[in-house]
Hints:
single chain; 367 residues
Amino acid sequence: MKPTILVTGATGKTGAAVAAQLLAKGYPVQAMVRAQDARSAALARLGAKVVVADMYDPDQLLDALRGVRRAYYVPLMQPYMIQAAAAFAVAAREARIEAIVQMSQWTSHRAHPTAMTQQTWLVDRLFADLPGIAHVIFNPGMFADNFLRTIDFAALLGIYPIISGSGKAAPVSNEDMARTAAAILMEPERHAGTSLRPTGPELLDARQMAAIVAKAVGHPVMPITLPIWMLGKVAQQQGVNPYEITILRYYMEDMKRGTFAFEGGVTDVVERLTGTPAESFETTARRYAAMPFARQTFANRLKAFIKFNLTPFYPGYNFDKWDKRMGLPMPRHPSLSIEDERWRREHEAMMARQPHPLGAAERLRAV
């Protein structure tokens, strides 16, 4: 009998894909969701057992973990994510599960300006200290999804917003992350105590991504630098959670400073663990370009044109004011990840342990 695996955030971008991958491999999956909806119904049709639980409630989490031996843990994108992680740690220990594969961040840093990244650093250590539970940190860099959320602008209006300057990253697709996480969950004992960093196959800056997106949509695309204050307007117009955007602005600054290109920025983790190379950014972009919101129809073009021209009139989020109102903890001396000597030392060692498609000297020359 294959062990039952719990997937938290099972209707999210990586959670749903991880659940589908495991089900396809014949593993019983317990898909944990916040509420029953069309997405959870789709998982049930695939064969998952759907359980509804509050991530902040240790009793509900314990119920969700009954009969489970392994778990894929995705942190909440919420201001008090640390409480949910602590509740999960308590429940996991009481349920005596054997392994946790935890989604972390490449930027995980005790003194980062964002509460989410500070808390991620704490969760890394909280789960690592759970006795008798094999713990694997799943440590991706920039998701390709971050750079393709506005592909409708490229497809319908011929523009590609840039908010990361000339910084580089190796964007990894949700599908590749899911394949890799599923491979780890099938053999967690093999990777216990390690931090694995799946990436896309090459470092790209935003202008290179714009050129690739142009190929995907089939016509020229003009890259346009978008100031942070304009990002706040677009986010409010689209109803994006301000917490996500106030975090993203710092990650874009991390990218500008070279955080995601540190020590070459590219690994061979996806291929080593799954047997299939990480897909190119162009492959991912073509998939997004085929989605309904980016299809080049008259109705979509008209809608995009109206939204684009209305954007300057939206009030937009005031990030600093929002952070202050939330009262989130701030380190005495906040720093971006790459500015911290300890972070650089630890991540240099971490990158040295990853499988790489190039030798060390070639990786450094590639930056």
